[in-house]
Structures are given as structure tokens and as C-alpha cells.
Amino acid sequence: MNILYISISGNTRAFAKHLAEYAKTQHERNADFPEISLKEIHENSDFEKETEPFFTFVPTYLDGGNGLDNGDTEILTETMREYLEYEENHKLCLGVVGSGNKNFNNQYCLTAKQYAQRFGFPFLADYELRGTPADVARVYQILVENHK
Ligand SMILES: Cc1cc2nc3c(=O)[nH]c(=O)nc-3n(C[C@H](O)[C@H](O)[C@H](O)COP(=O)(O)O)c2cc1C
Asked: β-pairing, 62-63 with 73-74?
């Protein structure tokens, strides 16, 4: 299974790495459980046309708005959105996993929800900050159920 992610302050990167380690352990126990390969999208990434299905992981950075009835602006993660737009990469995206901080109330994980709405792939799961070991196991299970 392939994961594309963006991480500004390292939380999503840490979670993705834990997920890949967990997948490796699961795979060693039972080869039916798929391993995970990771690709980080940076501000200076060379954009490529994706050729295999993947999951997108995106944290939330919004400027302004309350997530309900007034505007909010995506900041810092736009490269991920542009990457999904590039060569229609979003068509290979099986779903998005969002992260954020629940202190942001209605804006919690909103970027992932906005991607799901904009591109038409499912919002699969959310977790806070770096996530917990329980989040890793839960999210892995959800990816397994949704990968083709
Ligand atoms: C300027 C700023 C704005 C943020 N806005 C939101 C937000 O609107 N909703 C949310 O759920 N989390 C918000 N967060 C929390 C981040 O999404 C959270 O810390 C996430 O784990 C960062 O992931 P990263 O370390 O991979 O970049 C914000 C954090 C910062 C620093």
C-alpha cells in the first residue's frame, strides 16, 4: 500500500513511519497483511504522475474561519492539493486520512474533509497530532479494508 503525505512540523511524518513499521510487523506475521511504502511531498518536490493507487495523509493548517459558516484558507499544505491536481493524480487516491488538533473544534481535520469533498474520494479516518499506538493499529486496519 502506498501513502503520500505532507508534514510541516513532523507529526504526520512520525505517524506515517510508525504505520509503516507496524505494517512490516503485521506482514512478517502474516503475508496477507500488506506492507506500506511512504512518499513525502515537499514544497520543492518534483511532481510526478502517480501510477499506482495510494492513500493521502494531510494535517490541517488553516488561517481564519471557524469551519462552519465563514471562510478559511489552507496554508502550508497546498503543495499536497496541487500534487493531487497534477496530471489528475487524485483519480488514484483511495481516500484521505486527516490529522489535526481537537482544540480547533469544527476545524479539526478540516483540510482532509475538504480534499474528500473536492476530489470525490472518501475521508477514511482522523487522528490527533502524532497519534497513539491504538491510532496506528486502527488506521492500518482501515487502509487494509480500503485498498485494492
Ligand atoms: C498555524 C497552525 C494552524 C493549525 N490549524 C489547525 C486547524 O485548523 N485544524 C486542526 O485540526 N489542526 C490545526 N493545527 C494543528 C496541526 O494540524 C497539527 O499540529 C498537526 O499534527 C501538524 O502536522 P505536521 O506536524 O505533520 O505538520 C494547526 C497548527 C498550526 C501550527
From this structure: antiparallel
- Biggest CA pair distance of the chain: 49
- The pTM of the whole model exceeds 0.70: yes
The distance in angstroms from the start CA to the end CA of the chain is 9
- Cβ–ligand 1 distance for 77 under 6 Å, the answer no
C-alpha of residue 31 to centroid of ligand 1, in Å: 35
Strand, helix or coil for residue 104: helix
Alpha helices in 1-148 (DSSP H): 11-29, 78-85, 110-119, 133-146
pLDDT in tens, 62-110: 987 666 666 678 889 999 999 999 999 999 999 999 999 999 998 999 9
C-alpha 87 – ligand 1 centre gap (Å): 28
